[in-house]
Design brief:
about 400 residues, Rossmann fold, 5-stranded antiparallel β-sheet, 16 strands
């Protein structure tokens, strides 16, 4: 049945008892319930981080199209309200306010860096706009209004530390991006290395625009660690991996990374430059599973080339499909009902395997792969099923403390 504001007003006639103001509210409420469900998103579709953001924007569109092709949610279609942050934190803040205040979206799936997440998280919390952050990060965010579906240190940092200590030796040199992701991840690295009876010789931090690592490589040569761990982020930091290989150090000291590969960095390097780098994460295009094959086929049908698909894009897709599963379970977009659905342990099977919400932390329990870069591919060496976000769970229990609103850090 077609329903418009004009038809509604005509049907109410001169029922003055409703009052003009009351009628207006009733009309707006009816129209909101019959219109599309608005999914807001702010991502770096241009700027320094567009290598991550472009594929995430595409994944958002793919997920929305898939949901709509299946009849939508609650009998309504999904409308994506997408903004490009241009890799500018100020624009993240601006568009977060616009999504919650002006666009009045029903949910937001946004942010790449932890700095962008923290710039917008409180805006959505104040507006009671449910927020999904679908990117690997340093862990510890405890906030009932946010759902974090990317990997945390217990899932993607601890496994590579365990392998590195066992295969290569007990001393490490850490390189990290100089903002909250790198700073906190470096603490987790030191924690896990110490837990494995190893030691960190030195930790260096680099702003995101640093591209010259010559002096750092010379220092690493002097320190002679058993292995190097790189928690570097973005296009400028890719220079380290090229310079590391050009110096010949990739043949002398093993290298692992908490971020390499999640944005298809392995495709930007030659095989000679990238081979041997060890990583851990939720997704590899090489995964020979029905869910991954189906996803890549859908991507190819919509966009053509699948080379752009990377872990963060898959995490965005899985986050949206997980939200959709919560909406179906809640049978409503009502905030209280959605939170109850989120905290019931909803689960889906995505391209990266099983994704299950942990009720106490609002983080995801994920299947994890330890992978080695080989021939510009992420070759899976070891798998861990249903690995929990135990780092964040050490500090966060939203069942006991539903009003918590903090990011916890490991103490070392």
């Amino acid at each position: 049945m077609s329903f418009s504001r004009r038809h509604f007003l005509a049907s109410t006639g001169s029922a003055a008892g409703l009052g003009a103001l009351g009628t207006g509210f009733l009309v707006d409420d009816v129209l909101a319930q019959s219109g599309p469900i608005k999914l807001g998103s702010v991502l770096d579709n241009s700027g320094n981080l567009d290598g991550y953001g472009k594929a995430m924007v595409m994944a958002t569109a793919l997920a929305a199209d898939e949901i709509n092709a299946g009849g939508g949610l609650l009998g309504r279609k999904i409308q994506v309200v997408q903004y490009d942050s241009q890799s500018d934190i100020a624009l993240y803040t601006k568009y977060a306010q616009q999504l919650s205040r002006d666009d009045k979206v029903d949910v937001v799936h946004a942010g790449i860096t932890s700095a962008s997440r923290e710039a917008i998280r409180q805006t959505f919390k104040r507006a009671n706009t449910l927020y999904f952050y679908n990117v690997l990060y340093e862990g510890g965010v405890c906030d009932r209004n946010i759902v974090c579906t990317g990997t945390t240190p217990a899932q993607a940092v601890e496994p590579i530390v365990e392998v590195a200590l066992k295969q290569w030796g007990k001393t490490a040199y850490i390189l990290a991006a100089d903002y909250n992701y790198g700073q906190i991840t470096a603490k987790w690295l030191a924690h896990y290395i110490a837990q494995g009876k190893g030691s960190v010789l030195k930790t260096d931090f680099f702003p995101l625009d640093v591209a010259d690592f010559g002096s750092t490589i010379a220092k690493i040569q002097q320190e002679k660690p058993a292995f190097v761990v790189a928690a570097l982020v973005g296009g400028a930091h890719m220079s380290f991996f090229r310079q590391w290989a050009a110096s010949g150090m990739n043949k002398k000291i093993p290298l692992c990374s908490t971020t390499f590969g999640v944005g298809n960095e392995h495709l930007a390097l030659s095989a000679a430059e990238g081979d041997g780098i060890l990583i851990a994460g939720n997704y590899s295009q090489e995964a020979d599973t029905p869910s991954n094959k189906e996803f890549l086929a859908k991507w190819a049908k919509k966009f053509g080339d699948t080379k752009i698909v990377h872990e963060i894009a898959v995490s965005q897709y899985q986050g949206i499909m997980l939200w959709a599963a919560c909406v179906k379970k809640a049978g409503s977009l009502d905030r209280a009902k959605m939170l109850a659905a989120i905290e019931s342990g909803v689960s889906i099977v995505g391209p990266g395997g099983s994704v299950t919400l942990d009720p106490k932390t609002h983080h995801a329990i994920l299947d994890i792969n330890v992978m080695e870069v080989k021939g510009q591919k992420l070759t899976i060496k070891q798998q861990f099923k249903a690995r929990k976000p135990s780092d964040t769970a050490q500090f966060c229990d939203l069942a006991k403390n539903p009003n918590d609103n903090k990011q916890y850090e490991v103490k070392i």
